[in-house]
Structures are given as C-alpha cells and as structure tokens.
Design a protein that fits this description.
By secondary structure, the chain is an alpha/beta fold. The chain folds into two domains: 270 residues, 3-Layer(bba) Sandwich (FAD/NAD(P)-binding domain); 142 residues, FAD/NAD(P)-binding domain (3-Layer(bba) Sandwich). The chain is globular, with a radius of gyration of 25 Å.
C-alpha cells in the first residue's frame, strides 16, 4: 500500500484499502498505532494488583494481548465505562486508578512490523482532532496521564518540552501538541492524511448477474431492500489544498472505522429565538468576546445554560472577568448524575467551587437584583426575545423573565455523521433517534467494536459512549484483534485453496 506521502487519494484507479479510519483525534491515533504493528505484552516484572486478572494474564504470558480472549480477560472487571474491553485495557494501563492508586502499567509494547495492517487515517486538521480547536489555557478534566496514548508517557514528554509542571492536569494546548508529536515520535505519520473532508461513505449497489445464483463472496444482501451490495465501502470527499482549492477523491475500503468524536455539532435547546445573534453555542465565542472587551462594564448578566464542565468553565471565565452570571440547568442540585459528584475535590477545586455556588446561590423569586452569580436549578429556557430577554420556567411551572447581555447554550454536542445514510441513525441502539454519545451511541459488538447493523463498519471512542480518552484505547485494542483474526482466516483460506490447486 502506498504511504500517505505518496498520496493514495490521487490513485487512478482508486485504491482498495484494508482499513480507512475517519477521524484523526486520539481514537484514530491510538488505532493507527496498534495497526502499525505495536503490540502490548504482559511486562516480565509486572504484578497486577487484581490477583484474578493477573492469574489469567499469566496463563498466556507468551502471547500479546490482542492474541488473547478479551472476553475471558474482561470478565468480572468494573470501571467507569459500559464497554468491557475499555475497562480491561484501562485496568492494564492504569491499575486501580479510580481508587486513587498510581500503579505503573503492567504492559510493555513491542513493534512487530510483520503484524502491520495497511490503513490510512483521514482528518480535517493535524493529528489530535478537536483538541487543536479548544481553549489552550483551561485545564482538562482528566489527569495528564489519563490523556496519554500507549508507549509515550505524558509526563516524560512534558518534561522533555521543559514544561513547568504545576499540576497533574494538562491544558488542551499541551494535549494537542502531545498528540501531534506522538504520530511523529512513533513513526506512524505516514498513515495520516490531513485537510481531508468526507462527503459520503456508502456501500454501492449492483444488480446481480444472475439473481437466482444469489450474491458471490464479494457482495452481500441489503436487509431493507433485498438488493445486492458490494462488500467494499466507497468513500468520497475532497482534500483542501494550500491554495484553497478542493481536490476530489474516491477510495474503496474493506473496513471503515468511525473515529469522529463528538464535537462537530453543538446540542441545541430547539426553542424560539435560539438563532438570535446574542445566543451562542460555543464557549470559544464567549472567550473571544471577553478578550475583545465586548462585555466589559456590562450591567446585564450573561446567561449560561447547562450543568456540565463546559458550562462550569464559562461560569469561571465570566466571574474571573467580573461579568455577572445567571446559571440555569434542568437537573436538581443533588442529582447523583451530575459530573461534579464524580470528581475528587482535591484535583478539581475550581469545578467544586462552581458546584457549591450552584447549590447555595439559588435565585429568590422575589429578588430583582443580580449578584455576581445566580443559580436557577430545575429550570428550562422557554424562549429568547429580540430585546435580549429570556423566559425561564421552573418544574413547578413558574415563569421568570430575565434581561441578559448574552446567552451561552452549553448542553453538550452530538457527532455529525452526515456522510452516512440517514446520518448513521440506523446504527444506534435506538434506530429511530439521532446518534448521541450518551443516550443513543452506535451499537457495536462489545468485543470487536464492529457495528451490529453494518458488517465491516467499526466505531470507537465517544461514538460508542467512551468519552474519556483513557477508555477509548480499549476500542482500538478490540478492533486490532478483530482485524488481525480475520486477516489470519483469509490467509488460511488462501493457503488451503492453493494446496488444493497444487500450488506450493
């Protein structure tokens, strides 16, 4: 297979690649690392603190982890992911991390180039994906160690960059730089093609030569229409050149991996007035307005909608710049599912400060004065008015109109799978609903990460509910194992076929 430097996008006729990965964030990078021949083994001196798991690992110490039974190894493990292989791999990389221990990884990585599986990774920007678009000064949710990818410790890389390590947590700018350097240091940059935009991913139809014969091995039947589909995926898109021109391309792939993450489409309230110019769905736009001084000296508060960490970041940004805040969210303050309840206070003091304000500085219906921060728990936005007034409603039905200078709707984001049929909706656990990372992720086999609805289509990371980077690595491990096993079966069939024909 030609390397990325040889530009397989311009091949004529179009290439048929074993694997095409769509998305070059940490999910795509980690999978490329493993497909490039890097394989994890149990380290010779390793002793896992979980005695049952360690006993299982000892049974096949001579085998790499992808060669072992992942379902067997995952059995009985618990963690902050609903995907068993994600929990397994995190347990191997960060033993007992969720209970505060810093045990070293029990794995060692070996580059075995004979196990390379040809692939390319397509991304809009440089490797690192959406991390290059995030605010560079805000601390990330996770510890720096949890943001790292296999084979390169974040702390070691940061020390090499002479970073003044004041916190175990990193900034998005540092994480983005780490990912960009990772692909160079690991020698996998040849697999990455930047500035690529996907228009469509389809499995082309064809009419069978003889319908009575049924499909051959190169085709399969579409369950809905009964038509014959080619097994290979067709990927169409364009690459943006330096001069701004678009270079169209068509690729064919035996397997497609969706690694697009979840930052493409901000979630919306879908209320009247949400498209008014003072309503924003991006914390970056708010930070830009603050930086330009557009909100300095304002009397009317900024309305922040949402109870997640991005909303908390916006609250902190506003208060640090002496901008009053009205903070409204649907949940009650003691809701056990609030993200703040999952964060240790010592590691995340600024978020717990916001959470404390959310619980204590609750609005009084009788008050018309705006303190620096006012909380409206269990409230929803009914509408935005052209005169910068917003109508809120409590769960009891009580309405309140507030005058604001700007509104920030920060209630999460959804993956944008526009390039798939019906935006990939049929791939979810609930085919009648859009794909969302929490409520309706892509339904995959838990041990291969292959779509339950489309053969040879895989997904990992936030698309399957693994929003923390420490857990998406398990998806890469499962996909690597699945593709490796299929590759072996294909070779076995070829050898058997050759033997029958008398070919040595």
């Amino acid at each position: 297979m030609p390397s990325a430097e040889e530009n397989p996008l311009s091949s004529d006729p179009p290439l048929i690649l074993p694997v095409v990965i769509i998305g070059n964030g940490p999910s795509g990078i980690c999978l490329s690392y493993m497909l490039s021949g890097y394989r994890p083994y149990l380290s010779p001196e390793a002793l896992h603190p979980n005695p049952v798991l360690h006993s299982k690992l000892e049974e096949a110490r001579h085998l790499s982890i992808p060669e072992q039974d992942l379902e067997y190894l995952s059995e009985g493990l618990e963690g902050r992911s609903s995907n068993p292989v994600a929990v397994l791999f995190d347990t191997l990389l960060h033993p007992n991390a969720d209970i505060g221990y810093e045990y070293p990884s029990v794995l060692e990585w070996k580059l075995e180039e004979e196990h390379y599986i040809p692939h390319i990774v397509l991304g809009k920007g440089p490797p690192g994906g959406a991390w290059h678009d995030m605010e560079g000064s805000i601390l990330t949710l996770s510890l720096g160690d949890w943001m790292e990818l296999p084979g390169l410790k974040f702390k070691d890389w940061a020390m090499g960059k002479r970073r003044n390590v004041k916190s175990d947590r990193a900034t998005p700018a540092e994480v983005a730089s780490y990912y960009k350097h990772y692909v160079k240091l690991k020698g996998i940059k040849r697999n990455f093609i930047d500035n690529t935009y996907i228009d469509s991913v389809t499995r082309p139809y064809r009419e069978p030569d003889n319908p009575a014969d049924g499909p051959c091995e190169e085709t399969c039947i579409d369950k809905e229409s009964g038509s014959v589909l080619k097994k290979n995926w067709e990927i169409r898109g364009y690459r943006k050149a330096v001069d701004g021109s678009h270079q169209l391309f068509t690729l064919f792939a035996e397997n497609v991996v969706l690694a697009t993450g979840t930052f493409d489409a901000p979630a919306r309230l879908e209320v009247h007035g949400e498209n008014l110019p003072y309503v924003s769905h991006s914390i970056a736009e708010f930070e830009e307005a603050v930086g330009k001084g557009s909100l300095s000296g304002v009397v009317d508060p900024v309305l922040i909608v949402g109870a997640g960490l991005t909303a908390a970041d916006a609250v902190l940004c506003a208060l640090n710049n002496n901008i009053p805040v009205i903070h409204t969210f649907r949940r009650r303050c003691n809701d056990p599912n609030l993200i703040f309840k999952q964060l240790p206070k010592k590691l995340y003091p600024e978020y717990h400060k916001v959470y404390h304000m959310m619980c204590t500085q609750v609005s009084s219906a009788a008050s018309n004065l705006y303190p620096p921060y006012t909380s409206y728990p269990e409230h929803v936005v009914l509408s935005f008015k052209p005169d910068k007034k917003c109508v809120l409603q409590s769960t009891s039905g009580l309405k309140k109109v507030v005058k604001i200078s700007m509104a920030l709707v920060l209630i999460g984001s959804h993956p944008n799978l526009f390039f798939l049929k019906e935006q990939g909706q049929s791939l979810g656990h609930h085919p009648d609903q859009p794909i969302t990372c929490k409520g309706n992720p892509v339904e995959v086999d838990p041990y291969t990460y292959e779509s339950c609805k489309e053969p040879n289509l895989f997904a990992l990371g936030p698309l399957v509910g693994d929003n923390f980077i420490r857990f998406l690595k398990g998806g890469a491990l499962a996909i690597r194992r699945c593709l490796e096993l299929r590759q072996k079966k294909t070779r076995h069939r070829i050898v058997e076929s050759g033997s029958e024909d008398g070919v040595s």
